[in-house]
Amino acid sequence: MRPELSLLTGGRPRMTLITGDLLILSLFQLLPAHALGYILAGTVATCDNEGEKVDIPFTLGNPCLNCECKNREVICIQNKCPGKMKNCGLVVRSPEECCGHCRECLLDGIVYHTSTSSNSINSSSCTLYSCQGDVLTKSTRRCVVPCTNPLNVQGRCCPQCPGTSASNIKCGCSFNGREYKDGQHFSLHNDPCIKCQCSDRMVQCERDMCPLLPCFPNATHIPVGECCPRCNDQVHISDLQDGTCLLHNKVYRDGESINIDNCTSCICKGSTMVCFQHCRKTGPCRAPENCCHMCVSYVQPLETHCRVNNSIYQDGDQWSSSPCMTCICRTGKTKCHKIKCPARKVCPHGQHLEQTQLECCPKCVNKPGVCTVFGDPHYRTFDGKTFNFQGPCRYTLVRDCTRAELFSVIVQNDARNTHYFAWTKAVELWLGSTIIELLPRLRLRFNGSHAVLPLVTPSFNISTSGFLLKVSTSIGLTVTWDGKSYAEVAMTSKWRSRVCGLCGNYNGHGRDELLGQNGHFHADVESFAESWRVDDNEVCARPTRSRLPNVCASSGKKRRRARRLCRKLISWGFHKCHAIVDLLPFYKSCMMDMCECPKKQRCYCEAFLAYTRACEREGVRIRWDAKQRCHGWL
């Protein structure tokens, strides 16, 4: 170890100690030198009596330094004090002590250790003692009676409240809607200053009496969940004489007394400050701020549980009374508030915001798969493939291809007095044994009989929305019909890869849409579509033509009329959607429909409606009123 040397003046011998746990006494003196001015020289202090304690006159009375003779040399040891003393509020150090000692409370020959208390609820004693530093607080129990039928039990200081026997807890208590085990402690009304205990089906409650502290009141804190303050740190004091007491950092002599307030008086006895906290037994209090707590106080029983619609909720329980309302039980009262939804967010590609009846706030979910049929007719599958097929018979548009076979949607096409084209005439929805027929002019037939709208059952709901008829089912299938030739089938994402028909298999890939009913892929649309023809004895309107002539090529007038009307898809407020939904398939469908359209007919309306619906599904609002623009057609 490196010695710490102090410079010496006048050449007088002095001693220097090596710091640390082990100190060696040496004698040094300064001698003149030509180069340095002074030379430090000295010898180790020697001794003769091995093991003898050596008193060093130069240590300034340091009680932490002990020197003795070892191997004929004076060895000094520096004592180290332990860390912070546990459960000690006051550390006193006298001049003869190195580290000090913890002062505790002494009264009538009984020692009370710091931070200990006789405040046990089930104790038969009505007097409580609590020691903090050298301050002993003596108080009478403050009983709290939270019931209207208390019992005085022999051996107990406070009145007892009967706790209804809990059927599932032996000797436990059922109190204020909660069950407690025998011996379990709990707070009353969530007040940390009122503590209760269940004991043999009885409940006893008391108010905490906070002991006085040796430190200043402004040097205290109240821990979270507790009632009484504590000193921020241990109080350290030097040379506190025996027979004196410390209270609020002030020293009192033996026998000296002080009144803290109207309810607390203290007196210094020996080295312990004994404080008495008084309570008021009976009588009214004219000045509450100057009155002591009642020795026994009666409080109104508080129902901590809540009853809502024949349901019981405990204090602190939370529940939802509706999707947008959350409630909490607080001290027997139900408090409800509306749920605030976060700011509307942008959903990832392939998803959209949706709000269900069971949820308050909309959330991003997968967009439903949509298949549309319109015009002469044109088909757009769930996976976005478009094709034209003019078969004039009944065909399976989409059905459940699992073993369950929950539903089937069939379209019935009709030639409508045209030579080459066909139009969707009606839509049939089979839900198990239920048959729903959507007929021209928005008429409805239910299980063979005409029905009146709206029609609501546990498994489906049929109603009109504007100029459209809508069938919503409980299995995630929705069918929309305009009464003319536009049909739309929407399915939730749970039906992915579980359906088949002219609308495709809904697996997210448009390359494998031409899968026939026999399970084989077809090279052309006609053979694929004919494979989904519904076999029955009904005679089709006319045979299907494999090749269709270009009607507009032979009539320039029809071609000009078709272009003039179909070009409105490029304007009329549709331009906002052009970058999101491809316009070309709808424009071509419009041209095809108009080429064989009878005079004074608005055959372009189906293509316009189909494009408008496709844009709206992508969140683009189109300023085109189909009911006004296509009046008489839709």
Describe this structure in words.
There is one protein chain. Helices cover 7% and strands 36% of the residues. The protein is elongated and about 135 Å long. With 634 residues, the protein is mainly beta. The chain is built from five helices and 50 strands. The strands form 14 sheets. An eight-stranded antiparallel beta sheet has the order 38-37-36-49-48-47-46-45, covered by helices on one side. A seven-stranded antiparallel beta sheet has the order 44-43-42-41-40-39-50, with no helix packed on it. Strands 13, 14, 17, 18, 19 and 28 form a six-stranded mixed beta sheet that branches. Strand 9 (105-107) and strand 10 (110-112) form a beta hairpin. Among the domains are: 14-78, no CATH class; 306-338, Complement Module, domain 1, CATH 2.10.70.10; 364-531, 3-Layer(aba) Sandwich (Protein Transport Mog1p, Chain A); 551-629. Residues 1-41 have low confidence and may be disordered.
